[in-house]
């Protein structure tokens, strides 16, 4: 099974749209097609952003996703793990990148084009793939050619 670290941007997007690729990713976790993984920092950031940008109705949807999606909550990474990531990414995203590393998942799924969806992050996380929710949906639906060796 594919282990997927889910960034807060995906949780925010799913809260805003029940029909987009981000919501599908959470559905895959709920159905057991993937193992969805988050950290306390991811959950806090998503809750803060959904409430600030979308209001209480969408916050309730996020809470429902967090209850039903069967996401594994991993512990906050150590300060030394976070400091290592600060060398490659902006400080505010370092705890999330460190949690992804610690999770030992196969994929980081994110919509953070500014900081996470960058070649240097893909190189840093390798062999973990860095994908958008849409790319992950295509992968799961077998519409992109990625071999099983990419998930060792």
Automatic annotation (TrEMBL):
Alphabetical list of InterPro entries matching this protein: PIN-like_dom_sf, PIN_dom
Pfam families linked to this entry: PIN_3 (PF13470)
Segments forming domain PIN: 4-114
The name this protein goes by in its record: PIN domain-containing protein
């Amino acid at each position: 099974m594919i282990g997927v670290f889910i960034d807060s941007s995906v949780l925010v997007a799913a809260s805003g749209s029940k029909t987009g690729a981000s919501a599908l990713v959470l559905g895959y976790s709920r159905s057991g097609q993937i193992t969805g993984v988050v950290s306390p920092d991811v959950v806090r950031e998503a809750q803060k952003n959904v409430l600030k940008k979308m209001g209480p109705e969408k916050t309730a949807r996020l809470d429902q996703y967090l209850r039903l999606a069967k996401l594994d909550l991993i512990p906050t990474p150590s300060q030394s793990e976070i400091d290592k990531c600060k060398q490659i990414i902006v400080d505010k995203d370092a705890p999330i990148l460190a949690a992804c590393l610690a999770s030992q998942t196969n994929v980081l799924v994110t919509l953070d084009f500014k900081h996470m969806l960058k070649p240097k992050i893909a190189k840093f996380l390798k062999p973990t793939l860095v994908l958008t929710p849409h790319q992950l949906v295509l992968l799961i639906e077998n519409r992109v050619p990625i071999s099983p060796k990419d998930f060792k």
